[in-house]
Amino acid sequence: MADLKFLILGIFISIGFVLNIVGVVAPCFMVEKATADSKQHKCHAVNPFSSMGSSYDFASFALYTTVVCQFMVALMYGFIVYETKIKKRQYSKEILSLFYYFKWFFLLIVVLIALSFVLIAIKFQSRFNDNTVYLSYQSLLLITTIIVCSINIALSRRLVVQVARTIRQNSTHTANPFNFDTTSVYSISKN
Predict the structure, then answer these.
(1) Which of 132 and 60 is assigned the larger pLDDT?
(2) Taking the chain, what is the end-to-end CA distance rounded to the nearest angstrom?
(3) What range does the domain containing 77 cover?
(4) What whole-number distance in Å separates Cα of residue 127 and Cα of residue 131?
(5) What is the pTM for the complete model shown?
(6) 88 — alpha (psi -120 to 50), left (phi > 0) or beta?
(7) Residue 78 belongs to domain with CATH number
(8) Which listed residue, of 87, 109, 179, 180, carries a Cα 20 to 30 Å from 131's Cα?
(9) Are 151 and 106 contacting, i.e. CB atoms less than 8 angstroms apart?
(10) How many domains does the chain have?
């Protein structure tokens, strides 16, 4: 059961990873409508070194930090796959701690994306109200990333419980090899 949840978590990590990368790196985060002097819409990318103001710069930096967090989660997931599936090792306390880190990284991603939207809304509130500036499809990708990361938090919590139970069961069986429990691998059969 833990392996199925682990696989589902990997699928959702991949989906969140792609959504986050595309949502941050795509060229048009905010769109300014055409004015009298400019006949075209103007796109603003996520750029921490822009001339849009300090709150937009901090929001951009926060969004790039979410990409770094997604990379860290992908590396940790790859390490767990390497340890448990390739080397065929059982779940250990080190791997359990990585599942805890999953939860905190996903929570950090959710908070940073929400904070960046709040900062952008505060900075451009008057321009949002008169509809001269609006968010593009890129913002929808980041909102979807928030939803996927929330699902990942729930899956990580379930995996922590499942892996902790597995570790506890494995440690009780190795501590007492003469356990007469019939579900144990070390049980003695009655003839």
Answers:
(1) 60
(2) 33
(3) 2-175
(4) 6
(5) 0.80
(6) left
(7) 1.20.140
(8) 109
(9) no
(10) 1
Give the rounded distance of the alpha carbon of 71 from its chain centre.
Answer: 9
Q: Which residue has the tokens 């001269």?
A: 132
Helix axes 54-81, 2-25, angle to 10 degrees: 150
For residue 191, being part of any structural domain is answered with no
Residue 107 lies in a domain: yes
Q: Is residue 181 part of a domain?
A: no
3-state helix/strand/coil string of the chain = CHHHHHHHHHHHHHHHHHHHHHHHHCCCCEEECCCCCCCCCEEECCCCCCCCCHHHHHHHHHHHHHHHHHHHHHHHHHHHHHHHHHCCCCCCHHHHHHHHHHHHHHHHHHHHHHHHHHHHHHHCHHHHHCCCEEECHHHHHHHHHHHHHHHHHHHHHHHHHHHHHHHHHHHHHHHCCCCCCCCCCCCCCCC
User: What φ, ψ does residue 19 adopt, rounded to 5°?
Assistant: -60, -40
